[in-house]
Design brief:
alpha+beta; 3-stranded mixed sheet; GMP Synthetase, Chain A, domain 3; 3 strands; single chain
Amino acid sequence: MTKQRAQRLSELLKKEISEIILREVKDPRIGFVSVTGIDVSGDLRHAKVFVSVYGNKQERSDTMAGLEKATGFIRKLLAERINVYHTPELLFRYDDSIQHGVHINELLEKVKNEQEERGEA
């Protein structure tokens, strides 16, 4: 039961946090952000919010700083929007899985092109 509840809360938080970042947070440091996942603790009091940021290292750093600064504001809006006994403490973490996937895809494409140049199948 608890795992199911944590999963449902995770999905709800993902939807609401994405919406809040997109529409409510006005920090100019925050660029194009995508919430990729949320890991809710067993007691539902803490949530790690994994985000992917489009841009270079400086833009990612600025965006993460902006999200850290806006954590209280985001949590306050969450408390108004969702009906839970305790609104989870939020901890934003950068998720590089998308960037890693793009890098792997580039490497595979490079190998494929090299094989085609040598005439291999």
